Model the fold of this input.
Amino acid sequence: MTPRSVEVFFDGECPLCVREINMLRRLDRKQRIQFTDITEQSFDPSALGMTYAAMMERIRGRLADGTMIEGVEVFRRLYAAVGFGPIVAITRLWGVSHALDLAYELFAKNRLKLTGRCVKDADGTCAIPSRA
Done:
């Protein structure tokens, strides 16, 4: 079996996220990706030196050597792992890279609203749902 090249930490309660994760699972024929749902009760973010809230803020990953990555770089590594290296190379071009980073930041900040999972906190802003 090929060693896993990347672990992805994803929000298993996010419909858009789960759709993409399911697609990646189908494409991951060589089993290079480890999929970890951070909403599972068994997941302990403190083992990574993180809080649940920090893990929910944006997608995160861990490379085989233990290096933590986040944001668009996680998607690059996931898509490279399933054989889309040439497409990934395009995402590293200066203008494309910046546009993707900005688009992801916008999505990450509004993900809960976009997926109908916004829970208003005391000051009326969208808060990260607590773990059940």
About this structure: The chain has a mean pLDDT of 94.
